[in-house]
Amino acid sequence: MILGFARQPVRHVLLKNNYLLRYKYSTSASEAPPIKPGFKRGENVVAKRPLDFDDVSASFATKSDYEILRSIIVFKLCGIEFFVKNANRLLKLGDKIIGQRITNLIMKKTFFAHFCAGEDSETIKPVIKKLENAGLGAVLDYAAEADVPETPTERKEGVVSARTYEYTDEASCDANLEICLSCIEASANRPDSFAAIKLTALGKPELLEHLSTVLNHTKKVFQNFCESEQDIVKMTELINYEQFDRGLRAMNINLGTVKTRKLFDKMDANKSGDVDFVEWINFLDPKLLGGLNPKFKTQGLKTLSEEEMQQVRNLKKRLKLLADKAADLGVRLMVDAEQTYFQPAIDHFVLQLQRTYNRERPVIYNTYQCYLKDSYDRIKIDLERARRDGFFFAAKCVRGAYMIQERARARDRGYSSPIHNTIEETHANYHKCVDIVMDNIETCDLMIASHNETTVKHVVQRMQELGIPIRGGGIYFGQLLGMCDHVSFSLGMSGYMAYKYVPYGPVHEVLPYLVRRAEENSNMLGSAKKEIRLLQNELVRRRIRPLWKSGTGTVVQSQ
């Protein structure tokens, strides 16, 4: 396949106006999905110790007094609305007044030191060693980000542009590839290790956005065929033959009864008499959907140019090198979620990688942002695609990292926000998403990337109810470096597979990432307040403990 990784047989069907579709033979829907090697439900389900998210002595044991004080200052600054809203302006102002060098030095000693491990694979080693000594793993992530420029005709006052890697040329993507390869190699020295990558580091963001537009139109055509009025594609939506025939005719594609029936039957892989979305998307080659039919041309959709196709081939080569390296070294490779206007293309490439590399064990993980309204249905669809094609589903579930940008962009461009309206809806959806994966855990791996104590307790309770082993069951917990240490360290000490997401990179390139961390801490003020309180309690405990040991118990009691 032009956009795929799997080496599978394909055929071509030539339609009117050179409208070309591709299909491949699908794995039978009745084929039993694979079971993870060594998985035994009901074994190793008892934790070493009960979870205690208030145990400050254990949670902050690896921090010095200076690091605790710095953490308190950083969290308090994140709670100041003016500081967070104007972070980018303040950084630019600092560059003008005191110079970029001094501004970067200040950031390096404060926010960078708190949220990032270092500037390269060597300087991060002390941080990783600290985590290992506390029973925590590390998910390495090169976190440099930059703005994506918009063309003058597309730029609109107040529109929020994407935050992603800066694309200069294909050589810059090759340079990022080398960084990602070194990240995987650095992760390989530890068991059960992870590394994280972003596709916008490996390909042109505008290419991903264009491809995502074509893929979104693929979904829209499906919904038009099945005469759905919903915004989100669901597995319950089906196209029967009559709808398929009407849909083709509406697009001015008149094949005749025999050819239309033959095409429909080939789409209907499981011979159910209906075509669901999995069969639909597996059949069509997205590269050829836009621009070849006059109906599409009137909607402004274009086929990928030859230059873009070369960029796609380059991106595929980079992804293959990374996946090969990860598979060879036993490293799990997580592909980060990004903005919604990139995500369909990212999902497409990740799925192709999973079809190739997740046959024997979970290697490639996709990321689902559960603050998105369509995340649960996307997970259901991808679970079914994994089942039908016979590979392991592997996912990281997060709440989401681009809420401010996504809502502002949707408002300024005049479309409905893709994000749930309330935090309560997001919480409920997150639990629903992780529950459906845990119900199928024999054939899945799941990273619970959450700072929410209620969510962590919910997952732990579900693990006990379902008999999922604490170690070897395929459930992992992850929190960002510098955040929610009281949860991470408690999980690690209790025997759960707990990890810290460890960003690194040059200070000036990581500043956008640090701004997002400040924004997220501002949005999670309740959790930050608890963390500040626990940090303050640990400072007090350290100050009064020597007094207690010296025999001045009355001083301790007076405090």
From TrEMBL:
One Gene Ontology biological process: L-proline catabolic process to L-glutamate
Domain EF-hand: start-end pairs: 255-290
Which reactions are catalysed by this chain? L-proline + a quinone = (S)-1-pyrroline-5-carboxylate + a quinol + H(+)
Any one cellular component term from GO for this entry? mitochondrion
Keyword line: Calcium, FAD, Flavoprotein, Oxidoreductase, Proline metabolism
What Enzyme Commission number does this protein have?
A: 1.5.5.2
Per the record, a Pfam family?
Pro_dh
Q: Which residues form a coiled coil?
A: none
Q: GO molecular-function annotation terms?
A: calcium ion binding; FAD binding; proline dehydrogenase activity
User: Among its keywords, does the record have Acetylation?
Assistant: no
Function of the molecule: Converts proline to delta-1-pyrroline-5-carboxylate.
Q: Which family does it belong to?
A: Belongs to the proline oxidase family.
Protein name (Swiss-Prot/TrEMBL):
Proline dehydrogenase
Q: What is the lineage of its organism?
A: Eukaryota, Discoba, Heterolobosea, Tetramitia, Eutetramitia
